[in-house]
Fold this sequence. Notes:
- There is one protein chain.
- This protein has 237 residues and is an alpha/beta fold.
- The protein has helices at residues 2-16, 33-46, 53-59, 64-72, 78-98, 106-115, 128-138, 161-170, 184-192, 224-231, and strands at residues 20-23, 119-123, 146-148, 177-181, 196-200, 214-216.
- It folds into two domains: 19-31 and 102-231, Rossmann fold (3-Layer(aba) Sandwich); 33-98, DNA polymerase, domain 1.
- The chain has a six-stranded parallel beta sheet.
- Helix 2 crosses helix 5 and helix 5 packs parallel to helix 7.
- The longest helix is centred in the middle third of the chain and has 21 residues, at 78-98.
- The radius of gyration is 18 Å and the shape is globular.
Amino acid sequence: MGGVSNRLRFSYNRRMHTAAVIFDMDGVLVDSYQAHFASWRRVYGDLGIDYGEVAFAADFGRTSRDILRRTLGDALTEERIRELDGFKEAYFRDILRESFPAMDGAVELIDSLVADGFRIAVGSSGPPENIALSLEKLGRTERFSAIVTGADVTRGKPDPQVFQLAAERLGVPPALCVVVEDAVHGIEAARRAGMKGVALTGTTTRDQLAHADLIVDSLRQIMPAKLRALIGAPPSG
């Protein structure tokens, strides 16, 4: 009898919580791959270091400090990391201001999720200035109930810290959160956080993202009902 009671209470508690979607920013809401690549190439070019697309693809989804330490070594001081990171992100924002590449279907997906009762958040390793600029360009800042950036975390993906903090700020249990990511490190971080991972192809192949719970080729393939089914959440209303 106690087992039945516990199951009923668990089911009731799940209904009391709003489901949530946590978006990575780069490569998910913003088609920023080329802008990031160009800004990193400029930073490394200033240092006289060749930085190719193979290295960039391997680094995609990591924090800037992780990328810099991997390529320049652990002897790099925190002050120098902040300086180089600042140069890189300033270059990146200049590119976005000149030409903002929103992902196809991003605005429509955001609106449909909110209309369906989802709470939504950003969980990104990018700096707050980048996230603020991107949401402003998307025209959807007010739709997001929580924003977590690289300034809020000490560990980059695949560590789950960024998504755990987003769920905490949303007030939604990890089991009722879906993460939308385009990077292998991001999908792994979602798994470690106890969340379902939806992988968007484009910057990464289907084979590389095979450990995701759902793989899509376009944001337009993501429907609120499909996400609710993925996490076992009841229909809205």
